[in-house]
Amino acid sequence: MNHYFQQARFLQSATTRKTLPAERGLEIAFAGRSNAGKSSVINQVCSQKSLARTSKTPGRTQLINFFCLPDGDFLVDLPGYGYAKVPEPVKLEWQKFIESYLTQRNTLRGLVLVMDIRHPMTEYDQTMLRWAQGRALPVHILLNKADKLTRGASANVLLQVRKTLSGFGVVSVQTFSALSKNGLDECWDILDQWLGRDADRQG
Ligand SMILES: Nc1nc2c(ncn2[C@@H]2O[C@H](COP(=O)(O)OP(=O)(O)O)[C@@H](O)[C@H]2O)c(=O)[nH]1
Ligand SMILES: [Mg+2]
């Protein structure tokens, strides 16, 4: 496990710009379409079972959740897109909130974009990539649920996604499985790098 992220604790939720915590330290945000496995990814990154709730019902989380780390860094769980039951005006409000967070948050150091490897690079994903690109924010894409595909098929999607990313700025991509933990070391390496940390892990 990575001892630093293992120490993540829930700090607070925000629903509007006014309720965002003050800007301090460095933040890494996690985003993804509902059901892509964002909560499962955060739990694996932090080696905790239920830090970020996982749900079989997509789209429950509509808060920005902040988790604090010991050295004053933060992990930020952004609401998932594509929650079907939310009325259109509410969706637009949310979209604006996420956009303003992603484009204006000064302490934001990087964005982890979680995709279901079977449905990569949705329109929503591309919107997020453009917002990040607009401020040269580094993005790391996790092609999650790789356990659902054969190795060959996963490698193929990785290659295809990589090809489409050339127009999107500072973006890296890997295959991942929150179920098998495949790809976790590679992901930790990126997060450690963003936070300027030496790798600090065991087991
Ligand atoms: N097979 C498989 N299932 C996963 C993986 N990651 C998440 N899931 C499942 O996908 C569903 C949605 O996961 P969740 O973390 O709640 O997604 P979120 O809506 O993006 O936060 C849950 O049933 C998870 O157990 C994975 O890597 N492999
Ligand atoms: Mg979730």
TrEMBL record:
<dbReference type="Pfam" id="PF01926">
    <property type="entry name" value="MMR_HSR1"/>
</dbReference>
<keyword id="KW-0132">Cell division</keyword>
<comment type="similarity">
    <text>Belongs to the TRAFAC class TrmE-Era-EngA-EngB-Septin-like GTPase superfamily. EngB GTPase family.</text>
</comment>
<comment type="function">
    <text>Necessary for normal cell division and for the maintenance of normal septation.</text>
</comment>
<feature type="domain" description="EngB-type G">
    <location>
        <begin position="24"/>
        <end position="197"/>
    </location>
</feature>
<keyword id="KW-0717">Septation</keyword>
<dbReference type="InterPro" id="IPR006073">
    <property type="entry name" value="GTP-bd"/>
</dbReference>
<keyword id="KW-0131">Cell cycle</keyword>
<dbReference type="InterPro" id="IPR030393">
    <property type="entry name" value="G_ENGB_dom"/>
</dbReference>
<keyword id="KW-0479">Metal-binding</keyword>
<keyword id="KW-0547">Nucleotide-binding</keyword>
<dbReference type="InterPro" id="IPR019987">
    <property type="entry name" value="GTP-bd_ribosome_bio_YsxC"/>
</dbReference>
<protein>
    <recommendedName>
        <fullName>Probable GTP-binding protein EngB</fullName>
    </recommendedName>
</protein>
<keyword id="KW-0460">Magnesium</keyword>
<dbReference type="InterPro" id="IPR027417">
    <property type="entry name" value="P-loop_NTPase"/>
</dbReference>
<keyword id="KW-0342">GTP-binding</keyword>
